[in-house]
Amino acid sequence: MTGEASCIPFLKAEYKYKKQSGGRGQYGHVLIEINPLGSGEGFEFKNSIFGGAIPKSYIPGVEKGIRE
């Protein structure tokens, strides 16, 4: 290893949210992968969504939830 953080995920989590209360209902599916950074590198949030599947306006809320 060259001093860089390992690319092997430290933690993976998946959550599905479904709520049906008439009409279309609500659905969400989140995959989170947490990897270690090098010493002193702090926190980095990377949005790996492609193709516009999720409105960009939702991403800051996801990051905030992860930080909390």
Automatic annotation (TrEMBL):
Q: Which GO terms describe its molecular function?
A: GTP binding
Matching entries from Pfam families are given as: EFG_IV
What sequence ranges are listed for the domain Translation elongation factor EFG/EF2?
A: 12-68
Q: Which InterPro entries match?
A: Ribosomal_Su5_D2-typ_SF, Ribsml_uS5_D2-typ_fold_subgr, Transl_elong_EFG/EF2_IV
Which keywords label this protein? GTP-binding, Nucleotide-binding
Q: What is this protein called?
A: Translation elongation factor EFG/EF2 domain-containing protein
Source organism of the structure: marine sediment metagenome
Taxonomic classification, please? Answer: unclassified sequences, metagenomes, ecological metagenomes
